[in-house]
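User: Predict the structure for this protein chain, please.
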Amino acid sequence: LPVIGNLELRQIKPSTIQKLLRSMELAETYRRVIFSNVSAIFSAAVDDDLIAKNPCKASSVTRPATSRRKVVPWPAEWVSSMHGSLPAKYRIAVTLGSGLGLRQGEVFGLGAEDVDFLRGVVEVRRQVKVFGGNRLVFGLPKGDKTRTVPLPDSVANELGAHLSAFPRRDVTLPWGTPDADRRTTAGLILATRERSALNRNYFNTRIWKPGQARVGIEQSRDNGMHALRHW
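Assistant: Here is the predicted structure, written as structure tokens:
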């Protein structure tokens, strides 16, 4: 909606797609996502012999531009400053993000059982996802893919000390969606005082941003916790 929502597949031509793109006064990233999803629908229709061609792939259609911003890693001083500025029980989040390259949801979903200290690897099996602001679930990492990452000695040493001071918390959440019947339990390395999984909205507002303010790091999207992954 509004351009193609009331049309049949066969009525939608490359010119219709162009009109759709012109109507979307949205961020370029969001326009690319919408265009990609619309194109996937038409590709499925071609595969099912409902239409002959995908109008999104016509040469006359100007696709949303792909912008690639150069990633600028944080200075080492920022990483160590943020580590020191967070409350003791949350400092390991900085180490897991910067030392293992984990995304924020993966840091919050990492269980002690996912860490193999003997083999020196970490299995990234799940992340914590948020629905509706405060409903938490476990789910697969981004792209629905698990992965194995190396565990540096420096991370292993701090993680071992952290677990001695702040033991794992067994947390049970639905898997995939809040209403899912399947429930999964993980021995989370990071948890709240109430022994629940961390909500990114709470963490970013009450933990991360105050820590940035204490060390003088600008509060911007580029300086969110995801910046640790690039470092």
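The beta strands are 115-116, 121-124, 127-131, 135-139, 147-150, 169-174, 183-188.
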